[in-house]
Amino acid sequence: MAITMRHGPYNKFDPQKLRTAEIAVVTEGDPHASDGKAIYQCFSPGDVKRMATYEDMLDQIDEAGGDAIDNHIEQKVGTALKACEDATKAAQDAKTNADKAVSSANTAASSASTAANTANKAAEAASKAAEDCKNLIDEKHVAEIEKAVQQSLMVDAVDGTVTGKTVTDLPENTTPADTDYFLNATGNAMKKTKVSQLITWLKEKLGINALNTKMNDYVTIKNFAQKITLKSGIATVNINAALDGYILLGIVRCSFASSYLTTTGYTLSGNNLSLNVRDVSAPTTSSASANCYVTALYVKN
User: Could you tell me the pTM of the whole model?
Assistant: First the structure.
């Protein structure tokens, strides 16, 4: 006949009826366990502790770790959003200055157009004067005079200059390349900026580069192995689980080289991890030795 422990549903569970060192198994209805099943160890009648299984610890770590990670991410993202707002304001100010510069450029273009008309009239007058002088000087001198006049009229002409046009007259550039330019201004001084330079500047101002760096390896784990020796069926495993640049959240796995050993719970204190271990085959007399394997969970500081 199989050896069984005291067992039954939670509504029949009475710690006062348990005897010292007795183990009771709740088969259903325990509100402290996600599946309603639990194991309790009696230290004296009425004084019991619930033993955590591997599955129970996964549920507890998921609840505690999820809240910690959400709060940490919310804090870091809030800082990035503030940087985005500041960068947006700077971009709006730059646009205002650029609009002013475009207006100044249109005014200058109009002035240049008027100057060109005046120069054309002067060129016509010069050509007429040269024609009148043909009878006074030879053809070589006439050619030299015409060349000098044309050079004087072209002093302000530069390739790429927009003359007699406004911004609305220019063609659209719906898909600018990285090598294309945008017009902008520092005060009243017109300048140009490449699309690739603008993208690099926006990534830095909006905090995208910093956010990508911070999110890299945001959550990680570290494995530990430590030999333990039980005394009177129990032992405590103390592990220094410090990991530079990370905050210790808890454990996601705990196993032993012996199938008779199990953990009954753990505590965290800073970077120190303490686990309680029991031999279920001899809960009060075991002096077994075996390796304990622990996987700790961290979030970046």
Answer: 0.32
